[in-house]
Amino acid sequence: MKVLVALKHVGAVSGVLEVDGDHIDPAFLEFAMSDADGYAVEAALLMRDRAEAEEVVVVTCGGEPATAVVRDAMSMGVDRGFRMSAEDMGFDPLAVGRVLCEAVTSECPDLLLVGVQSSDLGQQSVGPATAALLGWPCVVGATAVQVDGKTLTAHRELEGGAQEIVSCELPAVVTVQTGPHQPRYGSFKDKMAAKKAEIPSHTTGVTPRVRVVAMRPAISTGNAEFISGDPRSIAEKLLEMVRAEQ
Amino acid sequence: MTAIVVIAEVSDSDFDPITAELVSAALQTGAEEVHVVAWGLTQSQAVGYEGVKSILLAECAPNSVEQIKELIHQALMRTQATCVVASFNWRNTEFAASVAAMNDMSIVTDCLSLETQPSGWRVSRPAYSGKVEVDLHVDGGLVALLRDRVWPAARRDPVPVVTMSTLTSVSAVSQVGSTEAPRSGVDLNSAGVIFAVGRGLGAEGVPEFVELTNRLGVALGASRPVVDAGWLPHAHQIGQSGTSVAPRLYIAFGISGAMQHLVGIRKAQRIVAINTDPQAPIFSIADVAVVAEGTEVVKAMLDLLPSS
Ligand SMILES: Cc1cc2nc3c(=O)[nH]c(=O)nc-3n(C[C@H](O)[C@H](O)[C@H](O)COP(=O)(O)OP(=O)(O)OC[C@H]3O[C@@H](n4cnc5c(N)ncnc54)[C@H](O)[C@@H]3O)c2cc1C
User: Fold this and answer.
1) Taking the domains of chain A in order of start, what are their residue ranges?
2) Shortest distance, CA A196 to any CA of chain B (angstroms)
3) B9, B103, B216, B228: best mutation site toward chain A, by most A Cβ within 10 Å?
4) What local confidence, expressed as pLDDT, does residue A220 receive?
5) Are B135 and A139 inside 8 Å of each other by CB?
6) Taking the CB of the first residue and of the last residue of chain B, which one, N or C, has fewer CB atoms within 10 A?
7) What is the ipTM, given to two decimal places?
């Protein structure tokens, strides 16, 4: 069985940001693999460890800098990875889905794993969108995935912490939720190989239908009363609040 | 003519109050027609809203994502709607993007505004973990999942109810078992004061935080990453996939304020947040905002509290 894992290179805002019209100056962003995607890679590697999968391949959609997440996954131990070269379509999950369909057509995996949400946008949509475009069944929010022959079984989360166990036939799409199986650190050998690896890229003809027209810092202060001071004076104020309620 | 189909939320044999917000959001877009799609209600329970054209009522197998998709497709065909509006919750994210894919529409979730445009829709939503708000232009049809508590409630008013035909789709994914949320001695539901720890305090910060809650005699809560990393058991997790709480005082240390965390603390009377980032989204709902190193505040509080 072959598993394809889709990865997103996400930008997190570090410090106090400034917005420039319709984008953020990349100097304010720190890039990394999206949280849940690391768990998707781990889920795939666990399947390979248990000999349910023979090969784990990763793909990312984006510009040249996005190859960093392919290398990250290779240093965790995946077999290989490639990039679908695309303009920024992060706000259009269907466009990403169309790109992933192209990747699926060329790789023919039995299982496509994606993170349940991206840590920058949290749309929770790429997995279900891609599944619908492929006509494959989709399991959303899995914390454990297992394959036996052509049958997939997954533990998936429901609201409030309850879980259900579901099954479906392969090929399928599973969106992986963060959970107890923390992404592994790869071996020294994998890290070296990841550094040196050629990361192939393929062009796509997909254009997004959702575009950014403006961007601004969110008004995040609301009605809060701001208190400041040294840690001790803050500690005293907090203790007062607690005692008033006890 | 622009039409919108609103997917109702139903609870206790009635429209859930969120439905009234979805309807008013749809009415405010400038669309000419708003229809509400619902299931799990009888005809007499389906009392509509002022300004709504019709309620499309169906019988849908409980939790059948496939039948929900089929129903929405039918509703779109019938009304010629170019936009589907639903609440941004866990159930809806399971079908929303597929509905968009199947009906050649786009999807945007966690929308904070929604308007018609000559060639599509204009929406705004958060980006970069809630630190930025973006305006998006969407070409063509749109499935929009809306943030709740942004729009006012529409007024109730009876409208015509149309019964939809029987749904026949069967899901390719079947349930083979289920487990309850793990129970333990942690009682967050009745706690008057909760101290909650987030990823910002790091693995090293957690033992001291636990010690602090012990000395203070307050309940201990956590965000999801803290539980995922195994720093605390799941029973402490607050939010969409944990517990919802209603303390008189909620103090969050190193928690950014993701929507999935905030839904769990809606009923808290007073929210205090300690965060190093002055733009942390949690400050938007906090009553008291403290910009500080969480670990240092924890240490200072421990210094003020003698260990027994
Ligand atoms: C389906 C689904 C369900 C989910 N359910 C839940 C749920 O039930 N509960 C939940 O919490 N999350 C849930 N999440 C995850 C949620 O989206 C967020 O990822 C999570 O809430 C973030 O946790 P956090 O705030 O602790 O971490 P982060 O978002 O990483 O925030 C850390 C914060 O700490 C601040 N910080 C850093 N250092 C310090 C310091 N020294 N002192 C003070 N502050 C500091 C940072 O500025 C930042 O604001 C769910 C996600 C999905 C997709």
Assistant:
1) 2-245
2) 31
3) B228
4) 62
5) no
6) C
7) 0.95
φ, ψ at B239 (rounded to 5°)? 135, -165
CATH of domain B3-164: 3.40.50.620
The model's pLDDT over A132-171, given as tens digits with 9 standing for 90+, comes to: 999 999 999 999 999 999 999 999 988 888 899 999 999 9
Residue A19 near residue A216, CB atoms below 8 Å: yes
Q: Which positions of chain A have pLDDT values less than 70? A: 220-221
Q: Where are the domain boundaries for CATH 3.40.50.620 in chain B?
A: 3-164
**Distance from residue B200's CA to the centre of ligand 1 (Å):** 8
- Report DSSP letters for A96-118, one per residue: HHHHHHHHHHHH--SEEEEESS-
Q: Which atom of ligand 1 is nearest to the CA of B226?
A: 26
Q: A220 to chain B: which residues are within 8 Å by CB?
A: 130-131, 279-281, 283-284
CA distance B41 to B43: 7
Task: Identify the pLDDT of residue B308.
Answer: 67
Q: How far is CA B280 from CA A194, B67, B123, B255, B299, in A?
A: 35, 40, 23, 8, 22
Closest by CA position to A5, among listed A75, A135, A100: A100
pLDDT value at residue A222: 74
Separation of CA B261 and ligand 1 centre (Å): 7
**For residue range B79-106, what is the model confidence (pLDDT) as tens digits?**
999 999 999 999 999 999 999 999 999 9
Query: Who among A94, A123, A242 is closest to B193 (CB)?
Result: A242
- Is A24 in contact with B128 (Cβ distance < 8 A)? yes
Fold of B193-304: Rossmann fold (3.40.50)
Please count the residues of chain A: 246
Q: What is the pTM of this model?
A: 0.95
**Atom 1 of ligand 1 has which residue's CA nearest to it?**
B90
How much distance in Å is there from the Cα of B22 to the middle of ligand 1?
A: 27
